[in-house]
Design a protein that fits this description.
Layout lengths: L2 H20 L3 H38 L3 H4 L14 H10 L1 H32 L5 H13 L6 H9 L1 E3 L2 E3 L6 H8 L6 H13 L3 H9 L4 H12 L1 H17 L2 H6 L6 H6 L1 H13 L7 H39 L2
Antiparallel strand pairs: 1-2
Helix pairs in contact: 2-16, 4-15, 4-16, 5-8, 5-9, 5-12, 6-9, 10-11, 12-16, 15-16
């Protein structure tokens, strides 16, 4: 620290104690309270972040351990025998290249479809009056509250024996059932997207639409030219939410997209595939070692979440801005 800086600090301290004496000690109390609360918040945030990050760090450490390290009680995080065999094994069992490509295009396509139709419905709820409007919005809220597993049997039977023009088709195993559900806003978490978009549009000034109507725009042209450009923050949030949930969804994927190799589906059967692989190698039925199987599963989970982490790193600023602006629209 230079001499000039030392003098500046000394003057600041002297002024602080003078102001504290003038305030009868209130300044010192408020300063101690301020820094005490800041320290307490820092401890809480550190603990919460550690609770979130620590399991991921454990999985990263296990994924690079050789099999003998998995049963060594002296090893906690740093492996003694560094190995990438777990990554090779998980990639082989998941069929990672094909599965990754399938998961990307399915998540992108269905997320875009969901956000588009949910934006239409949310805009309708925020701007137009129609019969039984409150009842239909109550049904939207039910989509948020009721878990999709409660209607899984009905969905299975409906698309297994899908009837149209007097003919019956089996649509299971193709993307068509899920495409129809997304177009009807019955896809994964669609009720939440409709609610969020509707709340955002409720904060839009009606004067913008009135000006568009005066210029000769109809409801659809107004929606696409005025409302959609102004709703980029909430649409971005909904798209990112939808993409992440589609990526990790195992329920709808297994129910409708069973013939398409998806990461979430392959992870659920990864341990069984590992056991079958070992049985083929040994020429007899073999139970996969528990520690080794968990290491391969942890590696597979990392391979599934790494693309999402990369996506968040690139979209972090846009995502935070969208949530901030969404919260301001009341």
């Amino acid at each position: 620290m230079t001499k000039k800086n030392k003098q500046t600090v000394a003057v600041a301290k002297e002024n602080f104690w003078k102001r504290n004496e003038a305030s009868n000690g209130i300044l010192l109390k408020e300063t101690v309270k301020k820094y005490g609360l800041s320290f307490f918040r820092a401890i809480i945030l550190f603990g919460l972040c550690f609770m979130i990050i620590q399991p991921i760090l454990n999985k990263i450490a296990v994924s690079f351990m050789a099999e003998q390290d998995l049963y060594d009680t002296t090893i906690v995080l740093v492996p003694k025998h560094f190995s990438v065999n777990n990554w090779k094994m998980a990639s082989y069992l998941i069929e990672f290249k094909e599965t990754l490509w399938n998961t990307i295009w399915v998540s992108l396509v269905f997320s875009a479809i969901e956000v588009f139709f949910c934006a239409l419905v949310g805009y309708g709820f925020s701007r137009f009056n129609f019969p039984l409007k409150r009842f239909w919005f109550f049904c939207v809220l039910l989509l948020i509250i009721i878990p999709p597993q409660t209607i899984s049997t009905s969905l299975f039977l409906h698309f297994r024996y899908f009837k149209i023009f007097g003919m019956t088709f089996n649509l299971r195993g193709t993307p068509l059932p899920y495409f129809l559900m997304c177009c009807g806003c019955m896809g994964l978490k669609n009720g939440l997207y409709i609610f969020m978009i509707r709340q955002f549009f409720m904060g839009f000034p009606f004067e913008l639409e009135e000006a568009a109507y005066v210029d000769g725009c109809g409801p659809f042209k107004t929606f696409f030219t005025i409302m959609i450009p102004g709703a980029k923050p909430i649409l971005t949030s909904c798209f990112l939410f939808s993409f992440v949930w589609q990526w990790t969804d195992g329920f709808y994927a297994s129910l409708f997209l069973g013939n398409i190799k998806m990461i979430a589906i392959r992870l659920t059967s990864l341990v069984d595939r590992f056991g079958a692989y070992l049985s083929i190698l040994n020429g007899a039925s073999v139970n996969a070692p528990l520690g080794y199987a968990n290491a391969v599963l942890s590696t597979g989970i990392l391979m599934a979440i790494i693309p999402l982490i990369i996506l968040y790193l690139f979209c972090q600023r846009l995502f935070v801005e969208s949530l901030t602006s969404t919260g301001m629209k009341e």
